Amino acid sequence: MRPKVTSRHDFDALLRQNIRLARRSAAGQMAATALFGLRNLTANFGFSIALGDLLYLDGRWYVTHAGLLRLACFNRCSAIQVRAVRELCDPITGRWVFKATVYKSPRSRGFVGYGDADPSNVSALVRGAEMRVAETRAVNRALRKAYGIGLCSVEELGWLSGPPDPAREAGKQPAPAGKNGSSNGQPRLRDRLCLLIRQHQLDPVLVKRYAADFCGTETLREASRDLVESFINNLADWAAKDREGLLCKLNSYAQSEEVHP
Description:
This protein has helices spanning 8-25, 32-45, 65-74, 130-146, 166-169, 189-199, 204-215, 225-241, 243-259; strands at residues 54-57, 60-63, 79-84, 96-103, 111-117.
């Protein structure tokens, strides 16, 4: 179960790369326990942060749909069967439930996982795409069972939707609000943008150039929170409906950079 980690040298190189990227993304604020967990994930599954297999949010590691699929491909997963559980689905209200079965080999009896999604448990960024979210969650759960991964997947997160639970948030001191931060318990805009980039495999440099142009500022840091939030919503909607068109738009910023160094 170790993609591209076939020797001690490969493992050491991947671990060094993962730790370097993890510390960079967390601005050096990463606990020793998180680094220990990263070492185990690297050793056991060969997950790569550079390839988008893992995401570090709110002090915890999460595996991504892309990382799970890459692990399945490396281990020559025989098949993944997905179907809607029609008796539990309600297209009118946007509620969907899927059942996924992962067959690790032709003789495997299968590992089953269920995933559900409705407007109350998905992010506003993917509102209207509940059916696809439910399917992805089902596949993720089945893959995690098949390959013994206790780590929750990013796509299964519930905190990406709706206001925080008052009882859960009771007693917490409000965090200081930065320009692009958050003080109401919601995920920071930077985290939402990073999640989008990883989910849709976008070039972060080109996304930042597009964001600055969209907000009418020299850099994204100079933009107001409202403008950044508007950009993120626009990016999410475009990526979900027309990823190819979005890639063409982003590539135009790469060409502009070549013409005007």
